[in-house]
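In response to reviewer comment 3 from the previous cycle, which asked for concrete evidence that the modeling workflow produces usable outputs, we include below a single protein chain processed end to end. The sequence was submitted unchanged, and the resulting structure tokens are shown without manual editing.
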Amino acid sequence: MVGSENQADYGTFSDKELLITLKNGSEKAFTEIIKRYSGLVLSISGSYYADALTPDDWFQEGMIGLLNAVKSYNDKTDTSFSTYAGVCIRNRINSVWRNSNSNKNLPLNNCVELTENTLPCVNSPEEDYIINEQYLYAVSSFMEQLSPTERDV
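The workflow returned the following structure tokens.
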């Protein structure tokens, strides 16, 4: 059934064996669960949409649902882990969807992301260079008119 951490081929383990190994502290078993169920998470999360959330956000929420399933699954029940994981993933994503569509989050849902493409460009680089040169010229001209004592102050 469950061998040592270094010799185990987790791809051949059943879900139940992986979960037992995982509860004993195996990170490789957790990686195998993630690998095995990321397709399910992607399938479920791909059907959701909200203005303020990207497909990556939905996928991450689904992965949190999978993590919750791993933590709370009771292997003594007749329910398979895949069925339980699907329910946990859907519940997590539905919860996020309800929260994102509530009136409380209306300002967030209607916000515009600030990126370089959405910020107005006031000056071109050439105009900025000319303005900087004019400023330096004005400062140097002003400094020339000051007496040595005035410059020290």
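The chain is about 65% helix and 0% strand. We consider this sufficient to address the reviewer's concern, and the full set will be provided in the supplementary archive.
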